[in-house]
Amino acid sequence: MKPIKPHSINELMQRVSNIAGLTLGQLASHYQFKTPEHLLKEKGWTGQLIEYALGATAGSKPTPDFEELGIELKTLPISYKGKPLETTFVSVTPLLNVTGMTWQQSNVRKKLNHVLWLPILGERDIVPFDRTIGSGFLWQPSAEQDAQLQRDWEEQMELIALGRVDEISGHLGDAMQIRPKAANSRIVTDAIGPNGQIIKTLPRGFYLKTSFTGQILKQQFQL
């Protein structure tokens, strides 16, 4: 039976507590989900399974996963030592009509306003079925973290507005980077070019760097 959406933060956190310590395989079997042998072609599988089990409702809409609670769910693959193994996708980067956009109204800020982090032991030598779900926790950015994210967002969005999208690389940003987000290089989208004309480029996404999410884990678990 499909879980209904949680009606309160307490109810959501009770569900989070109930799945802590289970493996992805155990959780998948409970809901008759098929567990892939590896996640190369099914990168989103873990997130989809957890969303389903916890009763998330937003799907692919640009709103937080638990719309009524205003909470975004992020699964975070971690190493044996509790360090994030990969960057965390936040939202698609707008590449057109960006003049006048502000950090306060951005999708990124809305998504990161209140996050339920769910660490999952994700070392490459553990097959998806045996990966253990950790203790999920709620997080809101501190004033300092919010300012750091805002700086990164503004610096990179300014380059997009100036038609310099192709100068953006993963090296930019202290907490958050922009990088291509496409299944393959044949997928292209419109963006502003150097002279204000429309050019074709790869779709981009905002990603939190592992140094930033590592700090969040450190704060939470006093690692």
TrEMBL record:
Keyword Transmembrane helix included in the entry's annotation: no
Gene Ontology molecular functions: endonuclease activity
Main location: cytoplasm
Ranges of residues in domain DNA mismatch repair MutH/Type II restriction enzyme Sau3AI: 54-152
Cellular localization per UniProt: Cytoplasm
SUPFAM superfamilies membership: Restriction endonuclease-like
Keyword annotations: Cytoplasm, DNA damage, DNA repair, Endonuclease, Hydrolase, Nuclease
Signal peptide (from-to): none
Top-rank lineage group of the source organism: Bacteria
Family of this protein: Belongs to the MutH family.
Role: Sequence-specific endonuclease that cleaves unmethylated GATC sequences. It is involved in DNA mismatch repair.
Protein name (database record): DNA mismatch repair protein MutH
Annotated gene: mutH
